[in-house]
Amino acid sequence: MSDDIFVFQIGANDLTEIVLGLEVERAGARCIEAGRPARDDALDHGIPQSAAVLLVGVIGVGSTAGRFFLGGLADRLGRPLSFLAMFAGMGFSFVIWLFSASLWELGVFAFVYGVFYGGFVALAPAVVIDYFGGRNASSLIGILYTSVAFGTLIGPTAAGFAFDIRHSYTLPIALSIVAYALATAVLGMTSKAPRSR
Question: How many structural domains comprise the chain?
Fold first, then answer.
């Protein structure tokens, strides 16, 4: 088949594996927009607002560090395994959050989440190119990043409803942990050596 028709040159299973893995991960990440709920959770634990708002910045610092550090490290360790580690790391950060009550504990969560999220953002385009080649990378990356909209649409609203009912972020955090575990398992089961192009 012609290389001009990228939909047909990519096996349906390959695209499904990546989209499913990313969708499950993104649903976990978007189940709670980490910045604002982390700040609100800190306020619920009696941490002053002036200190709690710093958590949003800590996520940003971690994300920047992850993009630089983990992106380069992945080139040496291998991108498929590193990409899997990003999913596991983001899920682990939510476990930290689940058991956090003090500002420093929430700060550890914010930094760890930021680092692994930054690594995910740095690796996603390279992993797409590893698997499918560079010729249609822009289209595929566009599709994958557009898929984030579903998690972004549903996640924060669902987390807000859960908070309104239970007056706690425990349920949305726990559901995010499950989503990250599922994403890690799906990616682990469907990962294979990238195709050589």
Answer: 1
